[in-house]
Amino acid sequence: MRSWSAPEVPTLPVTGPPVVLHDTASGGPVTVTPAHGGPARLYVCGITPYDATHLGHAATYVGFDLLLRAWRNAGHQVRYVQNVTDVDDPLLERATKVKVDWVELAERETELFRQDMQALRVLPPDHYIGAVESIPLAIEMIEALDEAGAIYRVESDLYYAVNADPAFGAESGYDRETMLRFFGERGGDPGRPGKQDPLDCVVWRGEREGEPSWPSPFGAGRPGWHIECAAIARHHLGGEFEVQGGGSDLVFPHHEMCAGHAQVVEPGTRFAQVYSHAGMVGYDGEKMSKSRGNLVFVSALRNSDIDPMAIRLALLRHHFRSDWEWVDAELFEAVDDVTRWRKAVALGAGAPAAPVVQEVLAALADDLDAPRAVAAVDAWVDATLGTAGLADTSDPEAAVAIHAVVDAALGLSL
After folding, report:
1. Among 412, 317, 378, 341, which Cα is nearest to 55's?
2. What CATH number is associated with residue 276?
3. For the residues of 357-405, what is the DSSP string, one character each?
4. How deeply is 348 buried, as exposed, middle or buried, from its count of CB atoms within 10 A (0-12, 13-18, 19+)?
5. pLDDT at 51
6. Among 218, 246, 209, 196, residue whose Cα is nearest residue 85
7. Using an 8 Å Cβ cutoff, are 124 and 46 in contact?
8. Which residues pair with 283 in a beta bridge?
9. What does the alpha-carbon distance between residue 24 and residue 26 come to, in Å, rounded to a whole number?
10. How far apart are CA 86 and CA 93, in angstroms?
11. CB 29 within 8 A of CB 21
12. Phi and psi of 173, rounded to 5°?
């Protein structure tokens, strides 16, 4: 599947510090350095393209974009993979409801997502993989799970037995009661008769009338959601890659199941070294979601002549792991802030830039602390413009340095 165009990113004359991330599995900070001099590898779960990109999506992908930039600024090569779940129940239901072919709907919304990501200057993945094109990988992985004794059949569907992985539960750390609640809320079927364990998840959904299906050794059908990501990640990144990322609503069951699939296929390994999760964005008092209808769309803001850099800055003022509430006033403040930043950079000379560059890189290496980095730039802008609007010309190269670090580290084009 085609990705989107990459923005030009300046190379900084200084090297950033090692990147530390909060790991959901261990509950603490982990320094994430690629082993043996290889690339830093990242897998981020992508969209199910049945509606446009909302700000909750944007916050997640901008957040992990900061990780790519922090790794690059620390001197690492990066290999980034993201999927698109271009066939799944929510997509098919939406297509039926609006009377549009499901393939057409998926292609249209995926293209809109590409446009939104490009406008926000999010670095594209090296491999952008659709669920449909990854079906051979999913089949291969299901066969490996079957050989390991982890698969059983319920009618025309194949299920993965969670007890096949001795480490089941280690990624989320949830107790069984919490797992059952989230499994039922997030696409699982804990009450289905015939299952060995209510938490077992479907890996191959047998053919249903009126639904798309593909041939397989198990009969016609389509893969489950979790097996899709596990298969794509293992194929393109290998085992024990550095970071598995996504929204916090994917901690369970999605990331737990992905880890289990991979760890049963390759016993004694971890799916990922670190599990990093973005917080949820709320609006009107509830989590922003398609089911609730309380969405703010990136494309709608762009079509209202809002500078995409203001959208990005508004997102960066919140830590990517935090849950927070979108307030429209913050966007208009960000519009004014981008104008101020550009005004300060346009002066050429300004307040000393070297400490700001160091603080921005240090902040982003510390669990992607964008609010701290933005505050450092804000302080430089204030010092440069001065209370009377006059520049402090103590550093004649300040504008060049600030312009470069704001672009390379924060992804903001001034």
Report:
1. 317
2. 3.40.50.620
3. HHHHHHHHHBT--HHHHHHHHHHHHHHHH-TTS----SBTTHHHHHHHH
4. middle
5. 83
6. 246
7. no
8. 286
9. 6
10. 13
11. yes
12. 75, 10
Question: For residue 130, which amino acid is it?
Answer: G
Q: Which residues constitute the domain of residue 147? A: 20-283
**Distance (Å, rounded) from C-alpha 315 to C-alpha 326?**
9
Element (H, E) at 276: strand 272-278
Q: Which helix (H) or strand (E) holds 29?
A: strand 28-31
Q: Which of 61, 125, 33, 78 is nearest to 320 (CA)?
A: 61
The tokens describing 349, both together, are 């000379």
DSSP codes of every residue in 133-169: TTHHHHHHHHHHHHHTT-EEEETTEEEE-GGGSTTTT
346 assigned to some structural domain: no
Most distant pair of Cα atoms in the chain: their distance? 75
User: What letter represents residue 188's amino acid?
Assistant: G
pLDDT of residue 392: 54
In a domain, 310, yes or no: no
Q: Residue with structure tokens 């560059």?
A: 357
Q: Is residue 385 part of a domain?
A: no
Cis amide linkage into residue 223, ω under 30° from 0 = no
What pLDDT is attached to residue 287?
A: 77
Residue 247 is inside which H or E element, if any?
strand 241-247
- Tokens 């084009």 locate to 413
Mean pLDDT by runs of 10 across the 414 residues of the chain is 96 97 98 90 96 92 98 97 95 94 96 97 98 98 98 98 98 98 96 98 97 97 96 96 97 98 96 97 81 86 96 98 95 97 94 96 98 98 76 80 98 97
How many domains does the chain fold into? 1
Structure tokens at 70: 């922090």
Asked if the structure places residue 14 within a domain, the reply is no
What would the 3-class secondary structure string for 283-349 be?
A: ECCEECCCCCCCCCEHHHHHHCCCCHHHHHHHHHCCCCCCCEECCHHHHHHHHHHHHHHHHHHHCCC
Do strands 157-160 and 151-154 pair parallel, antiparallel, or not at all (unpaired)? antiparallel
* Model pLDDT, residue 388: 45
The alpha carbons of the chain give a radius of gyration, in whole angstroms, of 22
Q: How far is CA 37 from the centre of its chain?
A: 24
